[in-house]
């Protein structure tokens, strides 16, 4: 059904190449149940409904589970095109001619540095991975509360993950088409956008590089 369409990454070895190690949600945990719920509702095909907070669930936990899932999805999508995203093809991290990103994480690199897209995305995904692996930020144990700053951390993670989608769409869409991954990319991105819209997680200004695509995805669903 619809879910199979959504997860072509489980078939074919090529598309299961991950750029970074996949982040697993422990089986048998409540978060794992939530992930299964998310996958089941995605299968219904109604993405607007699929992103809504399930009744009686904790918002932080729902955002945590989905953030991990988006990290894994983007990781796989980028993994399929890493060979086309090189120092020479992408000397700067851009999303079209009008948007260029410089990397800073506030701890190791305080002053934004200009770097190639593969370097930038490596920094970005490593940084996200470090946040997801931090038990004080993303507790995997039952009953361990989320920290007060969880929302702002999640927003920063999602804002940065968006940039990887933006780069793929602007600079590598031809490769995505050649690999016949566009349906997979579009579904993943649409799910991501509906999710961040549902909980107002990314500032409109940040979404500007893919504004037209976002409008188009939204209008089909009204």
Automatic annotation (TrEMBL):
GO molecular function: kinase activity
Protein name: MOB1A kinase
PANTHER family: MPS ONE BINDER KINASE ACTIVATOR-LIKE MOB
Keywords (A to Z) from UniProt: Kinase, Metal-binding, Transferase, Zinc
Record-listed Zn(2+) binding positions: 85, 90, 167, 172
Source species of the chain: Tychaedon coryphoeus (Karoo scrub-robin)
Ranges annotated as spanning the membrane: none
Pfam families: Mob1_phocein (PF03637)
Record carries keyword Aminoacyl-tRNA synthetase: no
